[in-house]
Amino acid sequence: FRSVTCVLCLLCAAQSALLTETSSRLDTAESRNELKVAFSAGLTDSGSVGPFDEETTLIFSKTISNVGRAYNQTAGVFTAPVRGVYFFCFTAADYLKGYMGLYLYRNDQPVIFNLELNDHGGYASTSNSVALQLEEGDRVRLSLPASYRLYDDSRNFSLFSGFLLFPL
What we know:
Number of domains: 2
Keywords: Secreted, Signal
Helix content: 10-25%
Main location: secreted
CATH architecture of the largest domain: Sandwich
Distance between the termini: 55 Å
Shape: elongated
């Protein structure tokens, strides 16, 4: 029984050490107050968006998640709460023949322009993603060029998402 007791003591000591290390890591993470920022939003349930006479900021009003509340669903704009590297992605869809596309802006500067020619008249989509270093207060948004259109409904064909990879 003595060797069994010794083995159990060793296991208990190892578990205790692991528990202490885990507790220490949790305390460190809590003391750093790690910020959590992530959002996903669908464009609309109403079908077609556009075409407009001028370039228009897209309002992705169907918030799926908004951890950290950095995405403003009324304005369609994400505002960086801290300096850091963020990851953004989007998918946009349409079903009529013609061009569809959109810009991703950081503040007032275009970063990405996606263009897709839907020459078959069925559902088509375009997607892209980017990692951006942002300063606190920087804004990211999607914009629909003049004369372009998109489509969305309750199935969320058109989405905009982003999250903080790490603070700087």
